[in-house]
Design brief:
Elements: H1 3-21, H2 29-36, H3 40-46, H4 50-67, H5 69-73, H6 80-102, H7 109-117, H8 122-149, H9 157-178, H10 182-187
Helix pairs in contact: 1-2, 1-4, 4-8, 6-8, 7-8, 8-9
């Protein structure tokens, strides 16, 4: 890793940690530069603005998710319904690990940012919406396979996938509010009971 790449990586990883553990609004460029041990000039060389940095943080986290526990949870070698269980377990262990280290739950970075910026920054809102759409598509593909295999009865896979994602995000938010990762473990399995029937034309 060359010096420029290392500097950019330090800025990105520092901002990701600060945004996740605190908030986007609460963390300033000066603090990020200080924690990352870089000059402001270096910051602006890589990121024209704090918003640009936030966009890069979202991409970085989404990439980690896509090739990390989300990829493992939605492994197509697993039976479709088992993937839902795996996803809930992964969310639980991810939050529990953070809680064990920090003494508090960080919640979901995407959910945290969505709550904070969606009504104030259209660019970041659209970026987060794209992340949620991609996550929802994982659930939708799983549901389609489950219907095709006869594991579950036919349903509106797109709407149910969105409901499942919303439910999981809501459970994580509730667990964060209570600072108790066990909430995910207790309530998460109910995600498999969600179903939205296909609407028939009048």
């Amino acid at each position: 890793m060359n010096a420029g790449t290392d500097t950019k990586h330090r800025i990105l990883s520092t901002a990701r940690e600060l945004f996740h553990n605190r908030s986007y609004a609460d963390v300033g460029i000066k603090e990020i530069c200080s924690a990352a041990r870089v000059q402001k000039g270096s910051f602006y060389h890589f990121f024209p603005s704090k918003r640009d940095l936030a966009m890069a943080v979202i991409d970085d986290m989404a990439e980690d998710w896509a090739h990390g526990f989300v990829a493992e949870a939605f492994d197509r070698n697993l039976p479709p319904v088992e993937r839902l269980d795996y996803m809930v377990d992964a969310a639980y262990y991810w939050q529990k690990a953070a809680h064990d280290i920090e003494g508090r739950m960080p919640g979901c970075l995407f959910g945290n940012l969505a709550l904070e910026v969606s009504t104030r920054d259209e660019v970041l809102r659209a970026k987060l919406n794209a992340v949620f759409d991609k996550a929802s598509s994982r659930f939708e593909q799983t549901l389609e396979e489950a219907v095709e295999s006869g594991a579950i009865a036919p349903l509106d896979t797109q709407a149910t996938a969105q409901a499942m994602l919303a439910y999981l995000e809501g459970v994580i938010l509730l667990a964060k509010t209570r600072n108790d990762p066990d909430v995910v473990l207790r309530l998460g399995p109910a995600i498999k009971t969600l179903r939205i029937e296909r609407r028939t034309p009048n």
